[in-house]
Structure formats: structure tokens, C-alpha cells
Write a structure and sequence with these properties.
8-stranded antiparallel barrel; 12% helix; mainly beta; 2 helices
Length: 153
């Protein structure tokens, strides 16, 4: 058992090295997020990243969300992720541009997640996130859960 845990940790460590690339597809907010303006939403996101040094990744992401009142949202953003532990625990800080009918916003956010390696390149990444709206905190600041599938190469 100890050997299996050590092997997983070593495999994860090798993926967080400078010069590695990252790609993620994620489903977010499938009824598992909350803000004051909506009851249900479904979102998808893609993210591409590059490790500028060991454990530090810069990324860009784009997303689409369908909300309960037939309002659609597009998101573009930039972020940085730091792997706190070599086993895959990470913290990410990002800034998102939100574009939807009758409301555009710049929303900084934070995400805490875990990259669980299925093999040496593919991960399942559950995360909890918070996005802060400065234009309408009550209705647009959001807390939610997401699940991503990452590829490290």
C-alpha cells in the first residue's frame, strides 16, 4: 500500500515541472452553485495552461453557462495555479470577464481543488470555487463546485 502511494506521489510530482503543458475540460455548477440571481445553471469550461516553474502554472480559460431564465453567459479569463502539495492539492487565483445580456462584469475568483491522477497524464479534478462580483455582489457573486478532467503533457 505504501509503495502504491509513493508511486502516485512521484507520478504527480513529475507532472508539475517547469515546461509542462496542461489542458482541462470541466463541468461546473450543475445545480451545485449559489448566488442570489439564479436557481439552476449548467456550465462547461475549457482551460489551457503552461508551467512557468515547478508547481506554478499560468492558464487561460473560456466557458459557457446556461442559466435558469434562458440567459446565457460567456466567460473569458486568465489565472495562476499553485500546487500546494506534490500529491495534487492546488489553489488557483483568476480574473474572469463575464459577458451576458444586460450584465457584463470583471470577477476575480479563487479555486481550491485536487488533481487525482488516473494515470501519469490524466486527472479527475474536483474543486470548490468562489467568484466575486464587484458590480452586483448580492446577485452575481457565486460559490460552487465543479469537476474537471485534466491532461498533463
Amino acid at each position: 500500500m505504501a509503495f502504491m502511494l509513493l508511486t502516485t506521489t512521484v507520478a504527480a510530482n513529475a507532472q508539475f515541472e517547469s515546461g509542462k503543458k496542461y489542458f482541462e475540460g470541466a463541468l461546473n455548477s450543475i445545480g451545485a452553485s449559489f448566488n442570489g440571481a439564479e436557481e439552476f445553471k449548467f456550465g462547461a469550461e475549457i482551460k489551457c495552461g503552461y508551467f512557468i516553474s515547478d508547481c506554478w502554472m499560468l492558464n487561460a480559460h473560456a466557458g459557457y453557462t446556461h442559466r435558469d431564465r434562458s440567459i446565457n453567459r460567456c466567460t473569458l479569463g486568465l489565472g495562476t495555479r499553485y500546487y500546494l502539495l506534490q500529491n495534487g492539492v492546488y489553489a488557483e487565483f483568476n480574473v474572469n470577464g463575464i459577458f451576458e445580456p444586460h450584465h457584463n462584469d470583471i470577477m476575480p475568483g479563487v479555486e481550491l481543488g485536487y488533481a487525482y491522477f488516473i494515470n501519469d497524464k490524466i486527472t479527475i479534478e474536483p474543486a470548490v470555487y468562489y467568484d466575486q462580483s464587484f458590480s452586483d455582489h448580492k446577485n452575481y457573486s457565486t460559490v460552487g463546485l465543479k469537476i474537471g478532467f485534466g491532461l498533463y503533457f
